[in-house]
Amino acid sequence: MEILLRWVFFSALALLPLSCWQRDKFPAQMPVLPPVTAAPIQASTATNAFSVALHGVDYHIQPVFDYELHGIVVSLRHHNADRMLHERWQDHLNIADLCVIWGANAQAPDLNAFEFWNGQFTCFFRTESQQAWQRFDRFAISNNHLLTEAADLREQIAKVQVGDQIRLRGQLANYSNSAGFDRATSTVRNDEGNGACETIYVRDFRILRSMTNPWRSLHSISWAALLLAAGTWLALVMTGRLRHRASN
What we know:
With 248 residues, this protein is α+β, with helices and mostly antiparallel strands. 29% of the residues lie in helices and 33% in strands. Helix 1 (2-22) packs antiparallel against helix 5 (214-238). The relative contact order is 0.20.
């Protein structure tokens, strides 16, 4: 029993960092939902400016367009308003940035040929494959600042992982707060650089399909095996069974 527990524990311990490193690897053949192949929908809005309050800070929201986005999350950053510039600006409303692709980018290119990552307010991507770069539409990717004070939406957004196919609806909006911070939204998909991010006041958010791959399964199994082996070892030690066996 002692040898088996040691083997399970250290095997799981070795597999955890490897599976964690590879858990966001995209499947070679990832089934894509039909709406994800379409571009975002932007339309005129009848929603007037309004205000919301969150954690003692008042926010003024100025809707610009109604907006609906289907896409695949390729990178993300969940924000903690108690850290960095969000703390300085008292911006509790911007709960996350999601870097999302759609259209031909969701189907044709080898996404594993790219590296996607989020800075504090930006999304970056690069590849060393000339073929992958030529097939990639750099205007079918966007970094989205998601705004909401609603607890249920914040809970849903907090669950998002790389590879999830999502749908969100709301308004492209400019916003400001009582601390003097303000941010404007992009209203076109073909801009780049500073100011190119979409700032979206979220009305509805859905994870339509979560990405699965062997590495994520292995990651879950490794955690379970590690905890099981450690728990069993502790239980045997506390009951004296493991010490008794070792003394014989």
